[in-house]
Specification:
- The chain has helices at about 5-15, 20-25, 50-60, 85-95, 110-115, 125-135, 145-155, 185-195, 210-225, 245-250, 350-355, 360-380; strands at about 75-80, 100-105, 140, 160, 170, 180-185, 205-210, 230, 255-260, 260-270, 270-285, 290-295, 300-305, 310, 315, 345-350.
- The protein is α/β, with parallel strands linked by helices.
- The strands form four sheets. Strands 3-2-1-4-16 form a five-stranded parallel sheet, with helices on one face. A five-stranded parallel sheet has the order 6-14-7-8-9. Strands 10, 11, 12 and 13 form a four-stranded antiparallel sheet that branches.
- Helix 9 links the parallel strand 7 (about 205-210) and strand 8.
- Helix 2 packs antiparallel against helix 6 (about 125-135), helix 8 (about 185-195) packs across helix 9 and helix 9 runs parallel beside helix 10.
- The protein is globular and about 70 Å long.
- The two termini are about 40 Å apart.
- It binds flavin-adenine dinucleotide.
- The site of flavin-adenine dinucleotide has 38 residues, from helix 4, strand 2, helix 5, helix 9 and helix 11.
């Protein structure tokens, strides 16, 4: 369609399939998804699928959008708790299937792409392009849903989809973690993005972690004026689960990456002044993630100076959140293949059921769950 000049038609196809089309066009890791399996790569290079999607949807957004007609919806209503990629995608798909969807979100819609992804990677205007389109179809209620309200919502709607993501940073679990200057990564990134310019990490920043989120934190620290940014990761480069482009970018910005290094203690009086670390080696044993288990090298303790330590070792479900939903062994919400939880009529998806994922994976969960909810609603007597 793009080649034949029908860019608007191309945008409509992409947007109908993917509720976060503009956002994915901007920050989807194509190197692990579409472009890694593109047949064209056998000839020369893969087709630039992400960029083409982005070109189509942004061209359409600049021309003030195609005219959208709301779908006619039936009597069944579904509550969606969490307005991130999974929740909004589910709500959009439900509307397409003829149901009413009401999205409850404690911060307003957008999820992690709105709250946390740094603006130098995802322009807020790009997210707004998707939200403006989606809010034509679904209504949003700004409210935090606790267990009591969850109960009420279940009684008021015919089905519920829960997609509240993972809102809590995993703690380091070493002495000194409560010192001033030790900051959980979601808080660090949110304050840097939305604070009133009051985030001053100092010149020496250490980021602990080996994922994309830790690279975002390192790049943010650089942009906030830190001169020495060190990334500390307990395994080797091969075991790091990051997108190559982000790692290259961090290196280009001068981030000092210390592989096979693990923190054992945060040092300081009231304020952090350093991080004591130990060298690691990879053992022959493999953990649940399929990677070799790192073990400390005795006597290799050393101190790295720091004014701020950002903890980016993963996220988990906040304690006390949705206790009535059964958990799987890894601690996430347990669902069957059709996204149904342990409670009748309650479905779940996104990071909440799988741990940290990607936007497009959450969008896919939302879509597939909507189809299961549709089956549930049309099979049960009204
Ligand atoms: C720093 C960072 C950078 C990332 N970068 C990328 C990237 O470049 N590309 C990519 O594909 N993925 C990226 N990801 C991963 C991606 O953002 C997530 O996988 C995705 O957002 C998960 O979607 P979700 O809908 O499951 O949850 P979320 O996006 O977490 O949305 C959950 C929503 O639920 C709301 N909520 C929570 N609790 C309640 C409650 N009790 N009541 C009401 N509402 C509630 C929250 O306000 C939030 O809006 C990144 C993640 C992080 C943390």
């Amino acid at each position: 369609m793009i080649r034949s000049g029908n860019v608007r038609g191309a945008a409509e196809v992409v947007k109908t399939a993917n509720a976060f089309a503009n956002v994915c066009g901007s920050v989807c890791p194509e190197e692990i998804y579409c472009q890694s399996v593109c047949n064209r790569a056998k000839e020369d290079t893969p087709i630039a699928i992400r960029e083409l999607h982005f070109h189509a949807t942004q061209t359409e957004a600049r021309s003030q959008y195609s005219r959208v007609r709301p779908f006619s919806t039936g009597k069944k209503s579904v509550a969606v708790i969490g307005g991130g990629p999974a929740g909004l995608s589910c709500a959009f798909e439900l509307t397409k299937l003829g149901h009413r969807a009401v999205v409850y979100d404690m911060q307003g819609p957008g999820g992690v792409p709105r709250a946390t992804i740094p603006p130098f990677r995802l322009d807020n205007a790009v997210l707004r392009s998707d939200l403006r389109f989606l809010t034509t179809f679904v209504s949003i209620v700004e409210n935090r849903v606790d267990e009591k309200m969850f109960e009420t919502i279940r009684n008021e709607h015919d089905a519920v989809f829960v997609a509240v993501g993972l809102g809590k940073d995993r703690p380091l679990g070493v002495p000194g973690e409560d010192l001033n200057g030790v900051v959980p990564v979601l808080q660090f990134l949110e304050r840097a993005k939305w604070g009133s310019g009051d985030v001053k990490p100092g010149s020496k920043v250490i980021v602990v972690g080996g994922g994309n989120v830790s690279l975002d934190a390192a790049a943010t620290a650089k942009r906030l004026g830190a001169t020495d940014v060190t990334l500390v990761y307990r395994r080797g480069e091969k075991e790091m689960r990051v997108w190559k482009s982000e790692l290259q970018e961090a290196r280009a910005q001068g981030v000092d990456i210390r592989f096979l290094t693990n923190p054992v203690r945060v040092i300081g009086e009231k304020q952090v002044s350093g991080l004591e670390c130990v060298r690691m080696i990879l053992s022959g044993n493999v953990d649940a993630s399929g990677r070799p288990v790192p073990v400390p090298v005795p006597g290799s303790e050393h101190v790295l100076p720091a004014e701020t330590v950002v903890v980016a070792i993963g996220q988990e479900i906040p304690e006390g959140a949705f206790p009535s939903l059964r958990r799987a062994p890894k601690g996430y919400v347990d669902v069957g293949r059709n996204f149904a939880t342990s409670l009748k009529g309650v479905f779940a998806g996104g990071d909440l059921i799988n741990g940290e994922g990607t936007i497009v994976l959450s969008v896919a969960h939302g879509k597939e769950a909507a189809r299961s909810i549709h089956d549930y609603l049309t099979e049960s007597p009204s």
